[in-house]
Amino acid sequence: MHELLRRARILRCDAADPGQAFRHRLRIGVIVAVLIFLVSTFG
């Protein structure tokens, strides 16, 4: 569990620019969606 929380902290974006934070969240969301798709298709 500690390892999972450490990895989640790495993914955080503490940018002051809202546009940059939005792009970061969008990228992470797309990556998670692709991983879910791959696992559901091939797993």
Mean pLDDT level: 87
Q: Which structural class best describes the helix and strand composition?
A: mainly alpha
Rg measurement, Å:
13 Å
Q: What is the ordering of alpha helices and beta strands?
A: HH
The number of helical runs is 2
Poorly predicted runs of 5 or more residues: none
How much strand content do the residues show?
A: under 5%
**N- to C-terminal separation?**
23 Å
Helix content: over 70%
Net shape: flat
The strand count comes to 0
Mind describing the biggest β-sheet? Answer: none
Transmembrane segments: 26-42
Keywords: Membrane, Transmembrane, Transmembrane helix
Précis, in short:
The protein is mostly helical and 43 residues long.
List the topology elements:
Layout: H1 2-11, H2 18-42
Structure in words:
It contains two helices and no strands. It is mainly α. It is flat. The two termini are 23 Å apart. The model has no long low-confidence stretch (mean pLDDT 87).
Pick out its properties.
43 residues, mainly alpha, 2 helices
